[in-house]
Amino acid sequence: MTKLKLTNHVDQGAAARGLIPETEVRSLEIDGLVDTGAVTLALPSDVVERLGLPVIGKTIVSLADRAPREVPIVALHLEILGRPMVLDAFVLPAGSTPLIGQIPLERLDLLVDPKSQDLVVNPASPDLPTLDLLRVA
């Protein structure tokens, strides 16, 4: 488990343009489960509602029971261990455990320490995420 800071990025943009005060930007800190078997971020619907995130689409996912389900997709600003990004998230039923999958882990250059089972910043890139866009063999 690790801390996530979730922010409504539409609110952030409105505040940056002076349309709303910074104090009205909806944001939450929650705990999420690092799940290296998951694809991306998945959030419970009650968290999505508290942030006021609009649905931007739908997709079919398979959960642990392997049954296909149609779920909404939302977009938001995510920060983990001080590293920010904007990404899409799948919406799960209220009360579900938030899941942090491969896309945010890769994009933020975060690693799971197998000994401590902690999520850590890649020690090879402590200041900024470093990503491989093209690897030449």
Q: Would you kindly provide a written description of the structure presented here, covering whatever features stand out?
A:
It is a single chain. 15% of the residues lie in helices and 43% in strands. It starts with a strand and ends in a 16-residue tail after the last strand. With 137 residues, the protein is an alpha+beta fold. It contains three helices and nine strands, in the order βαββαββββαββ. The mean pLDDT is 92. Strands 1, 2, 3, 4, 5, 6 and 7 form a seven-stranded mixed β-sheet that branches. A two-stranded antiparallel sheet has the order 8-9. It has one domain: Acid Proteases (Cathepsin D, subunit A, domain 1), CATH 2.40.70.10.
Tell me the structural class.
Answer: alpha+beta
The CATH class name reads Mainly Beta
Sheet bearing the most strands, described?
7 strands, mixed
Question: How many whole angstroms does the radius of gyration measure?
Answer: 16 Å
Q: What's the total number of strands?
A: 9
- Inertia-based shape: globular
Specify the CATH architecture. Beta Barrel
Can you tell me the CATH topology? Answer: Cathepsin D, subunit A, domain 1
Mean pLDDT: 92
Strand content: 35-45%
What fraction, in percent, of the residue positions are helical? 10-25%
Distance from first to last alpha carbon = 36 Å
CATH superfamily: Acid Proteases
Tally the structural domains: 1
List the secondary-structure elements in sequence, H or E: EHEEHEEEEHEE
- Poorly predicted regions: none
Q: State the helix count.
A: 3
